[in-house]
Amino acid sequence: MVTIELMRIQIRPVARPAVLAVLTAICFVTALVGPGSADASLGVSGSPSVLIVFLAGPVQQLSNPAAVGSPRSHQSQVTLSQRLAALPQLSIGLSSPVQGRYFAEQALLDITQGTRISLSSYSPEIPPPLLLVPDQRGAFFRGWMAINQRAAAAPAEIKPGLMAQAVPGGAAYVGVGRYPQQDAIVAADRAGRVGNLSLGSPATLASRIQLQMGLSRLVVATLPPGIIGDHALSTLLATREANQLVIVMRSPPSTSGAQLLPVGVAGLAAPGTLTSSTTHLDGVIAGIDLLPTVLDWLKVPVPPSVNGQPIKVVAGRDAQGLIDLKGRLQVVGQRRFLALWSLLGSWLILSLIAMLVSDRNGLRWSMRVGALSFFWLPSMLLVTAAINPSTLAEVVIIVIGSLALAAASDRFVAWPRAPAVPALVAAAAYITDLAFGSPLIIQSLIGSNPLFGSRFYGIGNELEAALPALLLVGLAALWYGRGRSRQAAILLACCGLVLGVALGAGRLGADVGGVMTVAAGFGVAVLLMLPGRLSVRTVTLVVLAPLAALLLLAAVDLLSGGDSHFTRTVLRADGSGAWWEIFVRRFELAGRGLIRGLMPVAALIAALTVALGIKRRDRVLAPVNNDAGWRAALAGAAAVGVFGALFNDSGPMLLLIAVFIAACAAVYLRGSPHLADGQAR
Asked: Domain locations in the chain?
């Protein structure tokens, strides 16, 4: 049966019946004897080959891989990560399938092209439907032309099918006839063709895969869930030769919501934990890393358009750690706004209670404590990331902890210096965590959140605006009453430099937009703290500060060997066209973010808040007698929001965050206890 199926799909028409009969006999004997004979017969033994295995749905537990088929070996369901960890030949990890919003077909296309962008950059966003159609030459995908047109219109060099196209002879796909064949996308070349196709029954799956390993250097297969899939996987791993690389991955599910797919690899090194230079995160790789890994193994040059990096293996295998990491990352998005609104609601309740108890004095106290609680919020988010509590416990810890620390700061630090404490604590905590690989940041509610695949370590877009704005407020509180001076300007410049290097260096924050955002915000603050009249030269230097920061980042990244996204996509960009694509993609994403949902209204409110603050700056700063440090800090925070929105693909989100922090600082100042006592107006 297998031989008949294989001959019908794989063998090309020949002129002489005798040749067809000989080839038929070879395939029949190969299917019966096994993979060794296939290699010998077809003359590819000794050549490196790659097998990419997709697991369709959940698989069952193998208590003893050698006892496949025993009913007792399949009594309980386990997670796929645990299943892969039970196979000692595999290095294990998680794969980030896409960047941003998840879509199964896009995850498979990204594997084939070795680079990816957000769905928002495509038009249309969702990939056109694809249908696998067998023919005498193998198979082809109906609808692939639309896939190529969609990729060509995207603001990046994207080539679907690049992986199979780069492999001599193309790729083969092996599947079960009655199952969906979407995984065959990975075996398609630039024209949407699959070189060899084998569809048949589950019982013949392992033998058909082994046969294809003798026919093609790259084979993609889909295993069904259950005993048959377990048996096939164990057989393939047990018979794997030294020159064969086996990659096992959960087939991208047709579901909504961001995903991290369990993955295992046999052949790269001694079994351990997977990582790559794309993620710099042990246990996590990106789907686009499969292409360079496959081509490196096959000794095929990696095309320059590929942004993925070869998969590497580090020592240690901790399946439970991967499960815990995945579980934590999956709840970050759900809890983020819940914690924020809970803290806002608690501030309102506290204000009402304080006013009931002490009227105006209570209101002023609640204004200071509420504002300070949001200054303490970033630090509290690192605390909950470290202990990983339940949803209710995390919200309670964040709300009570932030308010308690705020009340203590207000009680023991004289107004208006209290913001210096949470600001300096947050800056020190985040820079320290970045130095250790950002283990807490990536699991915090305000972190980079690798679940969405845009950044796997370092800071996220929210922190890109929050940290510089908060640090500016803290430095203003620390410098209060000392006026404008060169010493103050130097202090601001040095603090901005340290923060910019921490956020931008490839081995730390790896955030290009963050460096320019910090430079813009601190540049404005430095400008306002310099004594005397402003000169054209001084203004020019401040305007050029973001460009200077970018050049500094390039030098730091190259000298330190950071191998960050900035190095690969900007410094090594292939000509001005690639630079222009990066520029267009950032502004396109920012523009689309601006018109999504309620963001137009929120962005307008933020812009009007900045305008009102500029117009009424004397009234806002009246409690501190128009102090130069506070004026520079609020102006710098506004600049962080405005320029951050221009430099970053998240656009208006940075404006909202920076303006909110500046507004909290203004509320804190207006909560002066002296105003409440009638000592100042």
From this structure: 44-322, 335-671
